[in-house]
Amino acid sequence: MTGSAALFTDRYELTMVDAALLDGTAHRESLFEGFARSLPGGRRYGVVAGTGRLLELIERFRFDDAELEWLRANEVVRPATLDWLADYRFHGDVWGYREGEAYFPGSPLITVQATFAEAVMLETLVLSTLNFDSSVASAAARMVSVALGRPIAEMGSRRTNERSAVAAARAAYIAGFDATSNLEAGRTWGIPTMGTAAHAFTLLHDSEEAAFRAQVAAFGPKTTLLVDTYDIERGVETAVRVAGPELGAVRIDSGDLPTVVVAVREQLDALGAVNTKITVTSDLDEYTIAAMSGSPVDSYGVGTSVVTGSGHPAAGMVYKLVARRDDAGEWVSVAKASASKVSVGGRKNAARRLDSTRTAREELVFVGDGPEGEPEFESGDRLRPLMVQLMVDGEPDASYTGVAGTQAARAHRAEVMQELPIEAFRLARGEPAIPTTYR
Amino acid sequence: MTGSAALFTDRYELTMVDAALLDGTAHRESLFEGFARSLPGGRRYGVVAGTGRLLELIERFRFDDAELEWLRANEVVRPATLDWLADYRFHGDVWGYREGEAYFPGSPLITVQATFAEAVMLETLVLSTLNFDSSVASAAARMVSVALGRPIAEMGSRRTNERSAVAAARAAYIAGFDATSNLEAGRTWGIPTMGTAAHAFTLLHDSEEAAFRAQVAAFGPKTTLLVDTYDIERGVETAVRVAGPELGAVRIDSGDLPTVVVAVREQLDALGAVNTKITVTSDLDEYTIAAMSGSPVDSYGVGTSVVTGSGHPAAGMVYKLVARRDDAGEWVSVAKASASKVSVGGRKNAARRLDSTRTAREELVFVGDGPEGEPEFESGDRLRPLMVQLMVDGEPDASYTGVAGTQAARAHRAEVMQELPIEAFRLARGEPAIPTTYR
């Protein structure tokens, strides 16, 4: 993707900069923190996603002439501030959780250190990317864990905005999905793409058999035939007759899946198509996938539920000023104090405490006003540091961006899942799998 | 926005084209229909949005060299099909509901007539735009109706993908919101933008008073001051002291709003700031807005709930082949027959039956296989035709696109709301406000 990201921004970021430039506070060095106050829906853990996309978008966060002209014509900020915006590029440092990391309430997912003006401008972009992508990844990870190793493909592009679909495919892949139907996600992020035919293809033809013959002619017998346009039993019979017993797979997109799948498996076996796989795709979510754990299903395709965060389409992350330097150059912790939205001020560092079996037991958040550095880890159980430096002077660490960063995030998530306690994988509502402790 | 939309597409659209080009069925003239089988969450009506954006995206649906090269390298389709894709542009006709129109289950929201290959390729894009934007607009319209004329601003960019945020701002505006915080939505779609300051601005300063002074210095006393960073009562007192009784507004973003708002109104009046308005912005949705109908609130800012469709982030629309010509050139109705997802085949036209008080009573869907044309309206009550031609030979009707189209959609929605029966505006779950009848 190309183009500036500068106007993916709430107007008040710019008006704050405008006012702060006027009284000089805009240049105070500041520390903003992104975190989630809770996990939605009684989930046990969340999965961080969006970080790699965010780093690329921050790097491209510049105001071009057309954008500046629009801001001028609409009198969004004073002319002097337009000059400042024209020169804007982010020069700060960013630390945070690696993409693919598990997180819990209060985990300091991202820390942005820069002047107030430089850092506050990124608020909307930071939250848009992390909230949406983490929402998808957090839902997707639950689906992956209950799929018990069976492959899952993301097929939800049509159920979300055409551009968020690309981000959703990426987030689901990081969370362990195996492929996507979305071609742009394949091109931009290197995610394997898949897809064969819809009901329209069958209806286009004079008969189901003609449709299957056309598909096999184009893609060979190893293709996946959609067998439920008219009558599933007849569809399966026709599919094997047309493609032969080496037919790759049949797809079922309707009906009471656990019942239908058993019948289709028996029919395929009776027809000699013992290696033909069964993939199902009808409004699946983590609960219906879990309910098919004993069914002879080979793979899943998931649409609406994964791209909409399975009931929780925004992860609820916030971006707060937690510290700033005073006129004497000293760091001062700051926090909002009003009802029900209390924040913990100050710079944070974090580590996950693992017990002797390498099982996570506690999310430790170290609070301090000083500059960054290694937290003072306690002895005993192993502590795994959670924060890495993501940007140095406005430059992203390339290991976290692009196709390689996406692959690394997916691999990191797989490792992290190994250390979560078994309670983390319960679908039922409950407490976070490990407590967050401020030290 | 610029750039191609061709890869915002599920892989199976291209593989279907590939197979259908091989057996010649790709060129069969076809009719696809977009509709919703139901309204989510027991809502009484939906609001169509996304149409204007969609028309612009269809016009730009071309495969550029980089996209073709990626498809070639990944062997998505056969080389002959790549040549066909290289020449692709949509030449078909599109009819549908005007953007901003109310809709009900089965309403034929969009009808695409073209060759199978040209029309099937648009499936993902049609559904992404209509599902997301209509989800937002349908939720937003409910908020507008319970706000009883008080202005509402859309402030949810941070709770959805950075690009879907722009579409969400537009959809909410069409549904009757008055402004957005999103700057790109202002620039691209001409939507009024708004915003003043966040808690970070107060925390940046050495005191709340210093922050207020900075903001008033930049924007004058008519600005909106955020008074709940520390203590609301003290915040209000400081705000009026700094800005004077001509202070434009105070914003409250936390606490039990109905209680807090009454106290703040009394305090403002006692301080002589009788014209200072109160705006509230704390996790509002249609239910909390309705609960403040008797509170002295002047305006609302809504974030998460509107951009995520207030619990229903995808409108559930589908895009189905409903008719095609056979080899003799005759139109043949087609429909999937399998369990639980039955569709009604054939070309549709639609009208809303209005009674003598101009109140909507019935959604009439006329089913026929022939070419488009005026439905045979029955006598008696007035019938308002619902479908207009949106594209002719691949060219959008300019009255439905761009800034002007967005304004027209907003005005159309306001008119349509006038004709809905009073039951339509109940928040409680129930049946659609009017029945859909197939004729």
UniProtKB/TrEMBL annotation, chains A, B:
Pfam families: NAPRTase_N
Classification of source organism: Bacteria, Bacillati, Actinomycetota, Actinomycetes, Micrococcales
Name this protein carries in UniProt: Nicotinate phosphoribosyltransferase
Any one Gene Ontology BP term: NAD+ biosynthetic process via the salvage pathway
Organism of origin: Agromyces intestinalis
UniProt superkingdom: Bacteria
UniProt enzyme class: ligase
NCBIfam families: NAPRTase_put (TIGR01513), PRK09243.1-5 (NF006698), PRK12484.1 (NF009131)
Job of this protein: Catalyzes the first step in the biosynthesis of NAD from nicotinic acid, the ATP-dependent synthesis of beta-nicotinate D-ribonucleotide from nicotinate and 5-phospho-D-ribose 1-phosphate.
Cellular component terms (Gene Ontology): cytosol
